[in-house]
Amino acid sequence: MIVCKSPAELEKMRAASVLVAEVLEEIAAMVAPGVSTLDLDAAAERLVRDAGAQPAFKGYRGYPNTICASVNEQVIHGIPSKQPLAAGDIISLDMGVKMNGFFGDSAVTVPVGAIPERAAELLLVTRESLDKGIEQVRLGGRVSDIGHAIQAHVEAHGFSVVREFVGHGIGASLHEDPQIANYGDPGRGPRLAEGMTLAIEPMVNVGKPHVKMLSDGWTAVTRDGSLSAHFEHTVAVTKSGPLVLTRAASHVR
Ligand code: MF3
Ligand code: CO
Fold it and tell me: What is the Cα–Cα distance from 37 to 200, expressed in whole angstroms?
C-alpha cells in the first residue's frame, strides 16, 4: 500500500529531509585523508541529536551506527570504522533521520583528495542518473519510468546498475511501498500520484553489477572489486513535478 502525504505531513518530511541534507553537507566537508568514517559518524550523530531528531538507521534491524559509510568497492551499508580514509578513495555517506514522526533519507558519494579520472566520472554519472530518475517524477507517470531513466544514463556511460538493492517509499516509516528498482522497462508499476514520497537511490558500479555481502552481515561490495557509487534523494510527487526534499535550505543545485 502506498501512503500519500497531506501538505502538513509533507512539511514534516521536509523538515526531517532538510536536516539530513545539512548534516550530510557538514560531514562531506570533513572528508579528508586521515579522517575515519567513525569520526564522520560521531559528528553526524551529534548534529542530528542536537537538532532534536533521531538517527533512523541506528538500531534498525540491529544496524550499529548513524551513517552508512561505504568506501571504494563497498556499494552500501558500510559500517563506520577507525580505518583512516586515504587520498584517492571515494566514500558514500548515507543517512536517514526521524523527526516529528517522519523520515528523510539521502546519500552522496564524495572524493577523498584527488581521485582517478574514471572514479570522478563514476561520481558524476551516478549523480546525473539520480537527476534523470527524479525528472521522471510526475503525476500520472509510472514507478518504473524512474529506474528506466537511471539505467539508460548509467549504461550509456559504460557503467552498471546494482540490481539487488532498490529505492523505496518513505514517510512515517523509513521503508514504505513502492520499491523503486534502478533498472527495467518504463510504463510499469504503480502510477505516481500527488503526495507520494520516494527515496530514489541508484547504486552504480564501474565493473559488473553483481554484489556480495561481507561477513559483518551488512556491507555490500562489488563481486569484481570494482568501484561503486551511491546517491539518494527523498522526493515528493507534486502537481508541479518532483520536489526534492533532501536539499539544504542554502542549496540550489
Ligand atoms: N538508504 C538505505 C536504505 O534506504 C540505508 C539503510 S541502512 C539501515 O535502505 F541500516 F538502515 F539498514
Ligand atoms: Co534509502
Answer: 24
Chain centroid to CA 207: 20
Q: Kindly state whether residue 253 falls inside one of the protein's structural domains.
A: no
The overall pTM is greater than 0.85? yes
Instruction: Render pLDDT for 176-222 as a digit per residue (tens, 0 to 9).
Output: 999 999 999 999 999 999 999 999 999 999 999 999 999 999 999 99
> Total domain count for the chain?
1
In a domain, 124, yes or no: yes
pLDDT tens-digit series, residues 230-242 = 999 999 999 999 9
Residue type, 188: R
Q: Which residues line ligand 1 (CB under 6 A)?
A: 57, 60-61, 63, 68, 77, 94, 105, 107, 168, 199, 201, 232
Determine the 3-state secondary structure of 117 from DSSP. Answer: helix
Decide if 54 is inside a domain.
Answer: yes
Q: Which domain holds residue 137?
A: 7-247
Q: How far is the CA of 189 from the centre of ligand 2 (A)?
A: 19
- Give the pairing type, strands 233-238 and 241-244: antiparallel
Q: Return the CATH number at 221.
A: 3.90.230.10
Query: Do residues 189 and 177 touch, judged by C-beta distance below 8 A?
Result: no
Phi-psi region of 92 (alpha: psi -120 to 50; beta: other; left: phi over 0): beta
> How far apart are the CA of 196 and the centre of ligand 2, in A?
15
How many angstroms separate the alpha carbon of residue 120 from the centre of ligand 1? 24
- What's the 77 CA to ligand 1 centre distance in angstroms? 7
Is residue 44 within 8 Å of 23, Cβ to Cβ? yes
Nearest residue (CA) to ligand 1, atom 7: 57
Q: Whose CA is nearest to atom 11 of ligand 1?
A: 57
Residue 197 CB coordination number (10 Å)? 28
